[in-house]
Specification:
By secondary structure, the protein is mostly helical. The protein has 18 helices and no strands. Helix 5 packs across helix 15 and helix 12 packs antiparallel against helix 13. The two termini are 35 Å apart. About 4% of the residues have low confidence. It is found in: Endomembrane system. Keywords: Membrane, Transmembrane, Transmembrane helix. It is a multi-pass membrane protein. It holds the Pfam family TMEM135_C_rich.
């Protein structure tokens, strides 16, 4: 087969490609409006209600009102993104008489994302941008890898995580977090400990160390072990109150226990239907070695970080922010017990964001107005492009998200004409449907909408 230029127009219509189930652009958009609004409402109802419950207090009428408005506004945002994408596809076909590689997905997706993100609450735009940047980075890497341009490194996500986290912890130790109160620093404070916090801060009350020891049966045993660990020496440059041995082991044990509880709770919640049907079989799988992975990561990271930091303070008889870099890099070995690509890429993009803001504050870089909106649109367009032409390079969860949002229409769009660009697009679509267990057998109603 002769491969055409990616910029050469393919003379196909939007009826053949965008909405083959109806010959009306208006009907196509109207049907998409119906299914996308319902799916968007379902998604954001869960998101906002969970966010409300996680506050741990009885919601006030004002909280409920804010939650309802948030659900409606975010639903409007996601619905606008879906419907305007289809609309822009039809408009561009009428303007150019066909489609090329740019106008068949990327450009309409960019325009629809730009339109939609303006509808969303400004406070959520940054989070959305980080999310799509995360997924788009992975997608671009897979696209490059499928073309033989790059090659993945074994456990490369641990390297990305280590370097990115080391940068963030260095900012935390140097006191930069006091100027930019980003939520990621709360996570750092939780994992490495408040004692490692840089900059001016209040003295910590030692009575807090007794918190959490409420299990009467093991309280005495814990107290004995605690007293034994505190009997070791503490270096004068270390910011913690008790011995270095106590500091390292107690921090690691605490985070291991928290991680274990988190993963156990998640498994129980996600498998409630199975537990009801076959309780013995499912409960056995919940309390397995796999359940300890998050705990091993959190506990191991905290222990290794504190151990290395104390060692460096003792070796150099000083406490410097720069010690955060080797301490974090060594502690990142624990990430191998839970090598999550999504977490690594999130930390990577969060580091870039914090570094950019830092350089802007120091006058080294200019602030670009609307950069979050532009970046969101660019990265979302990448994801739509991959979903259109090479979905096997797209994260399965994102394909399922688009499939649900469109009521399955993304799998029905006829891309066979685009095989002339040499990407085996039609075959990839069929493979993606098979792998993700989605369907292209869609039932339409209301006049084949």
């Amino acid at each position: 087969m002769v491969v055409m230029s990616k910029f050469q127009m393919v003379p196909t219509t939007c009826i053949e490609y965008v909405h083959p189930w109806t010959d009306s652009c208006w009907n196509g958009s109207a049907g998409l409006l119906m299914v996308s609004s319902l799916d968007s409402f379902r998604i954001y109802t869960v998101v906002y209600v969970l966010s409300l419950l996680m506050r741990g207090r009885v919601p006030k009428p004002k909280d409920l009102q804010r939650t309802l408005f948030g659900i409606l506004q975010s639903t409007a945002f996601l619905t606008t993104s879906a419907v305007s994408y289809s609309t822009y596809l039809c408009i561009l076909r009428k303007l150019f008489g066909g489609y090329n590689m740019l106008t068949a997905s990327y450009l309409p997706a960019f325009l629809s994302s730009l339109t939609a993100i303006i509808v969303e609450r400004p406070s959520r735009r940054n989070l959305l941008c980080l999310y799509v940047a995360n997924v788009a980075t992975e997608t671009l890497w897979r696209m490059a890898e499928s073309r033989g341009m790059v090659r993945s490194i074994w456990r490369g996500q641990a390297l990305i995580f280590g370097i990115s986290t080391a940068t963030i912890v260095y900012y935390f130790r140097s006191g930069y977090h006091l100027e930019k109160k980003d939520s990621v620093y709360d996570v750092v404070r939780f994992i490495v400990g408040k004692d490692e916090e840089g900059g001016e801060r209040e003295e910590k009350n030692e009575s807090r160390k007794k918190a959490g020891m409420n299990f009467l049966i093991i309280q005495k045993l814990v107290a004995i072990i605690d007293k034994f660990l505190k009997s070791f020496s503490k270096h004068e440059k270390c910011p913690h109150h008790n011995s270095c041995v106590h500091y390292c082991i107690s921090g690691g044990a605490k985070l291991f226990g928290i991680g274990l509880c988190i993963q156990t709770a998640l498994k129980v919640v996600l498998q409630i239907p199975k537990i009801i049907k076959t309780p013995k079989k499912v409960i056995g799988s919940i309390f397995s070695k796999d359940t300890m992975r998050i705990g091993a990561f959190l506990g191991g990271f905290s222990f290794l970080y504190r151990l290395t930091a104390c060692f460096l303070r003792r070796t150099f008889n000083d406490d410097r922010p720069e010690f955060a870099i080797p301490s974090t890099l060594l502690a990142s070995i624990a990430f191998l017990s839970y090598p999550d690509r999504t977490a690594a890429l999130y930390i990577f993009w969060k580091t870039l964001q914090l570094t950019y803001n830092k350089f802007c504050d120091e006058g080294y870089l200019p602030r670009v107005p609307g950069s979050t909106i532009i970046l969101y649109s660019v990265f979302t367009a990448v994801l739509f492009h991959a979903a259109t032409f090479e979905p096997m390079n797209l994260r399965s969860s994102y394909w399922k998200f688009l499939h649900g949002l469109s009521g399955g229409r993304i799998a029905v769009m006829d891309r066979r004409t685009f095989d002339v660009w040499g990407l085996n697009t039609h075959a990839q679509i069929l493979k993606a449907i098979e792998v993700t267990k989605t369907s292209n057998d869609i039932k339409y109603s209301l006049g084949r909408w």
